[in-house]
Amino acid sequence: MFRAVNSRFIVVAAATSSLSILTTIWTPQYARADNQGSDFISSDSKYMNKSLLSYSNSSLKQQKTKREAKLKDIVLIGGTKHPALSEEVASILNIDMADTKISRFSDGECAIRVMQEVRGRCVYIIQPCGEDVSDSIIELLLTISTVKRAGCKSVTAVIPYFPFKHYRRGMPKSKKLHSKFLISGPTDFGKMLEAMDVDRVISVALQRPGQGQEACFFDNSIPLEDISTTHLTTTHFKEHIPLDGPIVFMSPNDECLKKAVKFEKKFAEIYPDSKISIIASVHRGTSVYKDNAGDFEILGKFDVKGANVIIVDDIIQSGVTVTEMSKLAKSKGAKKVFVCASHASFSRDAMRLLQDSPIDEILVTNTLPAPDNLIPKVKQLSVAPLLARVIWAEHFKNSLIDEDYEIETL
Prior knowledge:
Layout: E1 9-15, E2 20-26, H1 43-71, E3 74-78, H2 83-93, E4 100-104, E5 110-114, E6 122-126, H3 133-149, E7 154-159, E8 173-174, E9 179-180, H4 185-195, E10 200-204, E11 224-227, H5 230-240, E12 247-251, H6 257-270, E13 276-283, E14 296-299, E15 308-316, H7 320-331, E16 336-344, H8 350-356, E17 361-365, E18 378-381, H9 384-396
Parallel strand pairs: 3-6, 6-7, 7-10, 10-11, 12-13, 12-15, 15-16, 16-17, 17-18
Antiparallel strand pairs: 1-2, 4-5, 8-9, 13-14
Helix pairs in contact: 2-9, 5-6
């Protein structure tokens, strides 16, 4: 309904769910005097309103067509280390995986062939560098080189698991020279990616800047996108694990203490009636060449009697640390013990050790493929929706997902 008061213009507005159009129409013959002041809709304005709506619908269709055309510019390549994760991301984005052939000769040499056109297109390569780290890195670097030489517009390395996490435990000192040699494997890997002229890096749950680890080795030439898994894990607790009584978070090292604080804030919203606290622990030894995962001491008051204990770690490999901490918590009267970790490679006999431990449930993400002997108490949470959202946001330069696009899992 429109009103024209002391004016020679009628303003016609047509709005849709995603597009608003405001048009001013010159209509002196429909302008009414101030003393009349009545509402009216002329036949011409009705016609114009229909025309504007028709134009908006046509514009929406054009936008959708452009979006679908731009989506086809994405070339998604999955490495050989975690094909299931790559296919899940492709399924969420509703695109096909690129036709590639990655093979190895008898001496282990890697041969990579991209069997489709990538010239002028945006390439995303998904390759976690966990198991067989050196081979994973070489495969990733060679794939980047292949698409670069093929004339791609840009290449983004999606590395769910960033390698060389062992070096966070400390570096050996030189007794002869009385100095400390810094071993920085992650930095060296970052330099390799820079040398291959990668445009952007996306990873999952890197350690935070200020801790001297992976999240601060790239310079400003390569944007680094770090995806946090805290919300993913806390949402799983909210939907599937009801907790009553006190909740105590345990951090196996000072590097995970900030992560435990984030969990504490999230759980305070999910379980407002529960008393929540944090217990920190530190390792007595820090050598990367000595297996002392179970050698740690508790800092502060250790009161877990009748509480739900949640151990927050960054990675589980042998399982020694979380097993020893769970035994200590149970011996002090803990009701239940849970473990939350961003990554899990489960080396050695980790499955047997975790199965025999008093841990009730272990939550990890699928940044690395699960072993064949995965036990029931270990639950893998998929990071594919998170990766798909970041790829979408980066490609369209927009963090919003269109409602008519089929990414309901996001």
